[in-house]
Design a protein that fits this description.
Layout lengths: L1 E5 L6 H12 L2 E4 H11 L2 H12 L5 H11 L9 E4 L5 H14 L5 E6 L2 H10 E4 L5 E3 L18 E2 L6 H24 L3 E5 L3 H12 L2
Parallel strand pairs: 1-3, 1-4, 2-3, 4-8
Antiparallel strand pairs: 5-6, 5-7
Helix pairs in contact: 1-8, 2-3, 4-5
Bound molecules: adenosine-5'-diphosphate and zinc ion.
The site of zinc ion has 8 residues, from loops.
Length: 213
């Protein structure tokens, strides 16, 4: 399947994407993971993205479109992809539309995961992430079996730099201003599926029903 997953930070896009990859072999493409990898590797891309990410601001549309135009051409995309954290602005959505048309590809749906703000805030402050493989944990509801150590790969499970209270609040503001309108863009395109659910399983069920699987 080819899907875009929309939703505020902490809505569960990454978790849902990981569950969906197990269904049909589609790949999860997370611009946030790609950027964090670049920052960790100290690459040119990482250097350009680091400051904006740490503050919870968006990285420039040009940088993101450069990443995605390469990424979507890779072989593993042939079995489908779940775009997680992209597009995040109207210009990115417009550029993606042109790119897909050029590639002769069509998305199955755009899924907007709608979660109340208080749930989001609680989740983001308690979220922990494996710095090696990106696996997501929660100190309250889903801690790793050994504290600070990833169950999957043994890597360090930490709080992200942009998960301080200040950066979180900025990320939510940026989301409301720049990213929330992207749902409207896809609604006009007739592609939007809004799912109001706080459990990832319920989101998966709604997506399956929509795709007739
Ligand atoms: P979130 O949990 O907020 O969805 P992500 O892991 O998707 O976090 O992204 C982390 C950071 O990476 C964002 O706050 C932003 O700085 C940058 N980023 C990721 N994707 C994009 C994008 N499509 N456009 C601009 N910046 C992005
Ligand atoms: Zn890990």
């Amino acid at each position: 399947m080819k899907l875009i997953l929309l939703g505020a930070p902490g809505a569960g896009k990454g978790t849902v994407a990981k569950l969906l990859t197990k269904m049909d072999g589609s790949v999860q493409i997370s611009t946030g993971d790609i950027l964090r990898g670049a920052v960790a590797a100290g690459s040119e891309l990482g250097k350009k993205a680091e400051a904006a990410m740490k503050a919870g601001d968006l990285v420039s549309d040009d940088l993101i479109m450069g990443i995605m135009s390469e990424r979507l051409k890779e072989d593993d995309c042939k079995s489908g992809y779940l775009l997680d954290g992209f597009p995040r602005t109207i210009p990115q959505a417009e550029a993606l539309k042109v790119m897909l048309t050029d590639m002769g590809e069509e998305l199955d749906a755009v899924v907007d995961i709608a979660v109340p703000r208080d749930v989001i805030l609680d989740r983001l402050t308690t979220r922990r992430t494996c710095s090696d493989c990106g696996e997501i944990y929660n100190v309250k509801s889903n801690p790793p079996s050994v504290e600070g150590k990833c169950d999957k790969c043994g890597g360090p499970v930490v709080q992200r730099d942009d998960e301080t209270e200040e950066a979180i609040s900025n990320r939510l503001d940026v989301y409301n201003e720049k990213t929330a309108p992207v749902a409207g863009f896809y609604e006009k395109e007739g592609m939007l599926l809004t799912v109001e659910a706080t459990s990832s399983d319920a989101v998966i069920e709604a997506i399956k029903a929509k795709l007739g699987q």
